[in-house]
Predict the structure.
Amino acid sequence: MDEGQVKCPKCGATDISTNTKTGMLRCNFCRFEFADSSVNEDKEEDIFSLEGLQISAGLKDRDKNADTQITLRCESCGAQVVVDTQEASQARCHWCRNMLSINHQIDNGTIPDMVLPFNMPKKEAKDLINGYIAQHKFFAHPTFLKEFSAENVMGVYFPYMIVDANTSVNFEGTGEVEVRRYTVGSGDNKETRYDADLYALGRSFDMGVNDLTVESSSKRMDNTESETNNIINAILPFDTENCVAYDSNYLKGYTSEKRDTDVKDIKQIVETQIKDIARVTANEQAKKYDRGICWDKEEVTIKGTKWKSAYLPVWLYSYQQKKDNKSILHYVALNARTKELVGSIPINKIRLFITSAIIELLSILTFGGIQALEWSDPDSDHDISMFALIMLAGFLFYAFQYARYRRMGDRHFFERETKKIIKNATGFDKLLEHRKKLKNSEYSKANNDRVEGVILERKKPTKVEEIAEEMQATEVTENITGEK
């Protein structure tokens, strides 16, 4: 290691690669397997003792003027081998075929602190991605289906920053609890009214954020119609607690990206995400306020943070679709640890439009006729809203399938999925007044559900898209539980 080499602990050979079935390093000479122990098992007391800004060696500011051409001396035969760190982080001596590795962090920040090894073979990744494509064949673009090949699935290590934070949180505001729900009026003039209690409330606690994971490649931070980068974000989180010390042998057989951001570039994003996590945690401690909460005071004091860099593994299939003299880049990404799979697939819009039109026509003929018969009966109740919803069946189907194929709104819900530790929780609840005959089903001032730290910009969904997402969520629930 001191000379930039990693040798097999058993036989001393340097020809080492990753066994994707176990996630361990394997000597290709004697077949012995070994691995470093986890280097990211942060203990509770470690997080709550953080003070100030702690940045690891792998997150030094990038030196843009640093020479990426370095020379390694082979310890076996003495030959000098040049390695371009922009293209690779390991090389083989062209004289004695001894493996040379760059295991020391260099000043331009190209070498991370940790790596999370692949533990899924390529064959399994190909099978899963093949299955995903098969489930989306009907409305997939024919050119995409013709050109798709699972052989082009690649294993990629993407660069991330992993942040621990020691925080103190104090939220205060007002919230409403529903007491009664009833109907007033008669016939077509029926309306729902609500009685609710208004409270003043506060929640205070110490919160340790453990392994908040953020992309450190600027190319992955923006999501547009032509760059479906949210797919990479949506397969988070990873089991980062199992990261091991960086060893370039883990990269053998895979490609990787270098980070192109520094801590100062995303520090504000991380601080905003920590505040979002704190807000969700405060909501969890005030669940009785079912009509919503208006947080007037949100104090999140970050006492200390610890930043580390890591390579995290992804099986990736990319496809470039040519459309109207521009390109749309589609991704199908598979988390190589958790098997979370998300993909954007080019759509055959003509087939989708025709199918939706047929559904719309059948809905009008069938349900419209039934509703017309009901209207002819003076004693029947006319549910105009249900009739209107039925008349939109074709449009809803189109929106649902478009969302299912493109997945433009998918993202990592860091505010709920990031691990956190809560200590010293306190709070108060004070009844302010009883409110009667309210027209709104929710507290009109509620702001507790907002999320501000989303890196991937997401356009506000239309009502049709919201209903489509609800339909998609229902479909998933049915698949899992067997019931609606």
